[in-house]
Amino acid sequence: MDIKEMAAQHKLLKQWKYEWKPLYRGYTDKTLYINVGSNEVKEKPVPSQMKEKFIGGKGYDLRLLWDATKPDTKWNDPENEIVISSGPIGGITQYSGTGKSIVCTISPQTDIVIDSNVGGFFGPFLKFAGYDALELQGKAQNDVIIYIDGVEHKVEIFEAPAEPLDSHVLGEVLSEMFAKDEADKKNIGIVSTGAAADHSLIGMLNFTFYDPKRKCIRLKQAGRGGIGTVFRDKKIKAIVCKIPGVKGNLNNVADLSAIAERGRRFNKEMRELDDKQCQMRQKGTAHLVEIMNDYDLLPTHNFQYGSHKDADKIHSDVWKSYFTQGVPDGCWIGCNMSCAKGVDKFEIKTGPYKGQKVIVDGPEYETAAGLGSNCGIFDPEYVIEANFYCDTYGICTITWGTTMAFIMECYERGILNKERTGGLELNFGNKDAALELLHQVARGEGFGKLAGMGVNKLKEYFVKEYGADEKFLNDIAMVNKGLEYSQYVSKESLAQQGGYAMTNKGPQHDEAWLIFMDMVNNQIPSFEDKAEALHYFPMFRTWFGLQGLCKLPWNDVEPENNAETDEPAKVPEHVDNYVTIYNAVTGSNIDKDELIRQSERVYNFQRIFNIRRGYGLRKHDAQPYRAAGPVTKEEYLSREERYDKQLKEQVGVDPTKMTLEEKMAALRKYREDRYEQLLDAVYYRRGWNKNGVPTIEHLKKIGMDLPELIEVVKPLQ
């Protein structure tokens, strides 16, 4: 069926016209609400309090989602929303990394709010079309496509039965359908998912961007927490946003020259320093693979180990040889990082697209580590193919990598067998079985129906149905708050353990990545030092999600004199860039301290949102022991000299007089006790009580003593 035939099968369910007004200082001050069950479409003004306290991006998402849901709303209730927002800085083109948006919903995996940041065109285009945020609510009866037309200023909802579902095909089809010609494709941003989101709890969303050099549609992912599953539960096939085009100052900023000056300064750093630092323009985030392996931080065999003799097979130079070089690989217009690397004309070897040549976006570090080393697979072409299928099927590669690694360890330890897996031999390293399981998830067949539930529900299932040892599975299942860990081994970094397990949404490195500060450079030795870092960095990184900013330009290239500054981990010159840019966009006059306070308000709001839903307490910040230390004898023995030395020097016991079991027990007691002390220190620094609840005094201090928040926390003071 050709594209015209597909379009002919559309049934227009709703057309709604709106009045467009230019942005003012980064804001439209309107949000767009669409209910795909009732086909209601309306716009809402942004109240002054919402703008003042929630800023944009994740802040707007959380406020709108709170208002739309009840404490007991389930992920698949019609009232659950998917909310998408960029932020006031989002969409400027004079500084790198300004094309991000944040997506929030009640997660199928965690039952709390999940937030996921994503690049691509849709977030900025939504704003340029007239709206600071989009709320999607309700459930359609049949598959629908939502069209936000920022050219004719109308919103249309179509019943759309004929289009394919998988993202790499659907993105091309819809771009062709809604663009007037090839050049117009750059004015379209699309949100979609894929077949796996129909059959799993771990579905993710793809946001497109148009690659003018390759003349094709490419994908960036809002990966965590099953947002794509919610999308498909609502029977949404895609959202399309079209604008007339991007030009110099669509945000209508207060001081364009100040932004341009900082942009030129940063671009000069990229040109002169990137090749000597992280090589983002050549390798993207894949440059981290060998660094993590060298420091025993590369997850291997379900986070049991931190390095492997075959890691050189997925070394960043290997990825560089696959990535097309010399192409401006930015996922937003004007971004000079050029880190969205791609493998061109890769021939697919398995599955429904076997024999086709495709572009694969990535692999990024998380994908190489998750699909590769964590599963004991050191074949780059397997990683590329699995990366492609995760993307087009709509599965998060971080979630899938950790889930697959957990399944493989359960298979090797006899919890699973061929009878239980439907004949799949899911040992570490079995790439053929791993790919087949991925295809089964997309088809909703066989063991894939179980695998698509994610680690937390698999753990519960294996205990209930197979009689697995619950304590052991709780130790080895790398999951917190129902969300799978991202791909760093945190055993030797207490601060990173907190950076994972104390997150609001679950263990994702975008809140705090403190391994090098803590473990390698020993910059935060005391509990108070660690607590200060676990206050500052999550708040600082939260700010990116309020503004529409990517984290990478902050510290993946640094000024040449950064090491000579008082706080090099904060990259103070770049912090000053962000303060200057925010003020130049909005006309405000904040300083770096107010930047943190903006984030504190939203961060504490999200914590209380979790408490409102029955979570968000100290017990929910507990971590699996494998995140902190060796669970098995093999793990201990693999680093016996290190652990014995720690027992002697840190715990104060003589390991030569102890059995292996006694040594493991003593180390565990010590490490678990230190984590509890860390919780106390971090909670105190954040203004929370011993149970992890924000105090009323702290909420007053940061200006978030809203009546609805006080009502939630007051009984827990």
From TrEMBL:
<dbReference type="InterPro" id="IPR036503">
    <property type="entry name" value="Ald_Fedxn_OxRdtase_N_sf"/>
</dbReference>
<dbReference type="GO" id="GO:0016625">
    <property type="term" value="F:oxidoreductase activity, acting on the aldehyde or oxo group of donors, iron-sulfur protein as acceptor"/>
</dbReference>
<dbReference type="InterPro" id="IPR013985">
    <property type="entry name" value="Ald_Fedxn_OxRdtase_dom3"/>
</dbReference>
<protein>
    <submittedName>
        <fullName>Aldehyde:ferredoxin oxidoreductase</fullName>
    </submittedName>
</protein>
<feature type="domain" description="Aldehyde ferredoxin oxidoreductase N-terminal">
    <location>
        <begin position="27"/>
        <end position="247"/>
    </location>
</feature>
<keyword id="KW-0004">4Fe-4S</keyword>
<dbReference type="InterPro" id="IPR051919">
    <property type="entry name" value="W-dependent_AOR"/>
</dbReference>
<dbReference type="InterPro" id="IPR013984">
    <property type="entry name" value="Ald_Fedxn_OxRdtase_dom2"/>
</dbReference>
<dbReference type="GO" id="GO:0046872">
    <property type="term" value="F:metal ion binding"/>
</dbReference>
<dbReference type="Pfam" id="PF01314">
    <property type="entry name" value="AFOR_C"/>
</dbReference>
<keyword id="KW-0408">Iron</keyword>
<dbReference type="Pfam" id="PF02730">
    <property type="entry name" value="AFOR_N"/>
</dbReference>
<comment type="similarity">
    <text>Belongs to the AOR/FOR family.</text>
</comment>
<keyword id="KW-0560">Oxidoreductase</keyword>
<keyword id="KW-0411">Iron-sulfur</keyword>
<keyword id="KW-0479">Metal-binding</keyword>
<dbReference type="InterPro" id="IPR001203">
    <property type="entry name" value="OxRdtase_Ald_Fedxn_C"/>
</dbReference>
<dbReference type="InterPro" id="IPR013983">
    <property type="entry name" value="Ald_Fedxn_OxRdtase_N"/>
</dbReference>
<dbReference type="InterPro" id="IPR036021">
    <property type="entry name" value="Tungsten_al_ferr_oxy-like_C"/>
</dbReference>
<dbReference type="GO" id="GO:0009055">
    <property type="term" value="F:electron transfer activity"/>
</dbReference>
<dbReference type="GO" id="GO:0051539">
    <property type="term" value="F:4 iron, 4 sulfur cluster binding"/>
</dbReference>
